[in-house]
Amino acid sequence: MRDPYEVLGVDRSATQDEIKGAFRRLAGQHHPDKNPGDSGADDRFKELNASYQILSDPQKRAAFDRFGAAGVGQAGPMGNPFAGGVPFDVGDLNLDGLFGDLLGALGIKVGDRGTLQKDLKITFEEAAFGCTKDVTYDRIEPCVDCAGAGAAPGSKMERCTACNGRGRVRFQQGVLPIAIERPCSRCRGTGRVVTVPCAPCRGAGLVAKPRTIEVTIPPGIENGAQRLVERGGNVARPDRPAGDLELTIRVAPHPFFRREGDDIVCALPVSFPTAALGGELEIPTLEGKGKLRIPPGTQPGSVLRVKGKGVPRRVRGGRGDQLVEIALEVPTELTDRQRELVSELGKALGEDVQPQQATFLEKLRALFG
Q1: Which string of DSSP letters, residue by residue, matches 152-213?
Q2: CATH of the domain at 221
Q3: What does the pLDDT look like over 284-313, one tens digit per residue?
């Protein structure tokens, strides 16, 4: 049994943080998954793990400092790196073997479930009435050439040395000396490893491919809503099902309309004669052109309602309304004749004021006494 301080390369006065940091660094260098084909990597890693178990436990460390190897028992820690002592979860090293490195090149992290997120842009009208859209995107799929195995066609696979062909490895987690099994990260739980990697996928068993799917958008969907396409995401590992595709709906702004719940709102410029005398004007609607009757004496800022011309309701059925905000249109350039007529109209109206102006004058008098 070698001196655990020598194995980890730390002083006898090293703190727990220094010991843990040294173990992380050395374990990352000598982990079997990082050294394929190196038969001694497994022994070195076990020795590192056994040394860490001694030095990370204050009682075992004190016993070793006082009595040496006899204080901790040579057969226990060195014979079986998972027996007794303070366990170290190799998952803390963020290692997933060579397979994890290959997935990282495809943009998939360890623990990734394959969920993809994508924005789907639609028009205002498509959001109102619903539509069917073709969505094209890139996703990770099993390699066709090797059927997801990662091995070149016709090549043989060898027994995994990290798990001895079992497909599972044992480790300890928590404070109890209980060994837990998990799938071997090097062979992905198969017990066999690739000797000649498949060229298209470089041994990962996965490749990025463009995919086109048809997505149905229901009527009345709102901006920012999400649609879930089950199993439409990445295949994070060849032995696992595909993740989901999360589509976030992005509704483009409309040049005339804005949405308020199930109603749509638009502004309508109206001339003074039409507002004063009433009339019928052409207005835009979601279906095209429409007609709107302007009552006599319509005031600026008034809101006229057109029933059933809004967005289809998703719960109650039917449709919302179209709200038309009246904006009084004042001419900026007048001919001499027009100026004369406006002046005559002003004289004919006299001091009489309209209801809105009267309300304003009353508030003004109340403010200044």
Answers
A1: PTT--EEE-TTTTTSSEEEEE-SSS--EEEEE-TTTTTSSEEESSB-TTTTTSSEEEEEEEE
A2: 2.60.260.20
A3: 999 999 999 999 999 999 999 999 999 998
